[in-house]
Amino acid sequence: MAKRTSNRVKPAETELKEKLVNLNRVAKVTKGGRTFSFAAIVVVGDGKGTVGHGLGKARDVSEAISKAVDDAKKNLIRVPLHKGTIPHEQKGKYGAGRVLIKPAADGTGVIAGGAMRAVLESAGVHNVLAKSMGSSNPHNVVKATVDALAKLRMPMEVSRQRNISMEKLFNG
User: Fold this and answer.
1) Using CA atoms, how far apart are residues 165 and 48, in angstroms rounded to an integer?
2) Structure pTM?
3) How many other CB atoms are found less than 10 A from the CB of residue 38?
4) What is the pLDDT of residues 96-132, one digit of tens each?
5) 3-state secondary structure string, 67-134?
6) Pick from 99, 105, 134, 135: nearest CA to 117
7) Residue 84 CB: number of other CB atoms within 10 A?
8) Could you read off the pLDDT of 35-57 as tens digits, one per residue?
9) What 3-state class would DSSP assign to 36?
10) What dihedral angle (degrees, nearest 10) is formed by the CA atoms of 14, 17, 22, 23?
């Protein structure tokens, strides 16, 4: 059996851009009244094929966001890109969140909504068709999108794993 390589990436010195996907105010009811805190979901990426997501919780907004960014930098993955789009169609799943991403022709742009758009743009995908099916919960949509991106493989990698030539891969 072929050894499966992980597409996890160590945080490099590259400039990672962060995008806040969702900020949620949560309340804890205590004897003294309600105590409010914040939960932030952040996506970081370099726009060249590296992306990660993170969750941070704290009493104030800025601390929750910075915790989420630190968590996202620990969960970076490498995404194979081919001419500004993805190499093939892929489905991703996390909990009740299900997503479908398809490669698109040059000039199409990122056709995706909300949480998916943030992940795809951070990864550096410029042309893609995306559909979120199932849960619209930002947590699940972000994780399902990252799952779909992590499953992507380049044609050269597929031909090497199957021990067939590139011509045979494309021509059947």
Assistant:
1) 28
2) 0.87
3) 20
4) 999 999 999 999 999 998 899 999 999 999 999 999 9
5) HHHHHHHHCEEECCCECCECCCCEEEEECCEEEEEEECCCCCCEECCHHHHHHHHHHCCCCEEEEEEE
6) 99
7) 16
8) 999 999 999 999 899 999 999 99
9) strand
10) 90
